[in-house]
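can u pls check wat happens w/ adenosine-5'-triphosphate
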Amino acid sequence: MIEVKNIKKKYGNNHVLKDISFEIAPGEFIGIVGANGSGKTTLLSIMCGLNHPDSGTILSDGKIISNSPQKLSKYISYVPQENPLISELNAFDNLRLWFHGSKRELKEKLTTGILKELGIDAFQNTIVSKMSGGMKKRLSIGIALLDNPSLLILDEPSAALDLYGKYRIREYTKYYTSKMNGSVLIVSHDYSELSICSKLYLLKDGHLQRIDTGLSENELIKLLK
Ligand SMILES: Nc1ncnc2c1ncn2[C@@H]1O[C@H](COP(=O)(O)OP(=O)(O)OP(=O)(O)O)[C@@H](O)[C@H]1O
Ligand SMILES: [Mg+2]
């Protein structure tokens, strides 16, 4: 269980996050929706240790992990909107940069569990600069999942992907929550992506409020204004 408690963040006079608290249980698929500039990426970057809150804590099973980026990264992995890959290297070597085990262990890992589902072994020798957007996104998710984090955070994962790419990302994330008991937190502006979440939150005016998962696209749009 990951708990986010009383997170506050200001940039100058811009009070972006006023008092954010929520919990994510194993197997949960949580979506956050909010207008451009409402603070979604700021919240995600704090949760993965790339940014510091002015106050507040993050806990894993009751223990504080927000006091060190290493602890946060042990439990929480982040797939940023822009790919974090080294473009001159192939898929396998990008994975190796982040993997703590041997080459043989990584080869084995590519043929089991979620990494097999992601199908990275089929293009492991392809150089990033020659990959499609969907391949880069799958590889970025694969890197984030190498250490089996409790929580996978995705910032607009299917932006710029075609319909099939969007569908595949939905399938992998569903697999991670339903078959591997991982948790997923997704920020999205895409209604089809938000509609598979088990819980939805709206980030507005610095506060996070729970909203109904059954809302229509028009109802969601009205809430954003
Ligand atoms: N490093 C920074 N310094 C100053 N202001 C910042 C910084 N990063 C973000 N902001 C401001 O904080 C607010 C929230 O930005 P953030 O990127 O978190 O929004 P977002 O909800 O992710 O938006 P989008 O939907 O466009 O991705 C915006 O007003 C932005 O200009
Ligand atoms: Mg953002």
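The chain has a mean pLDDT of 92.
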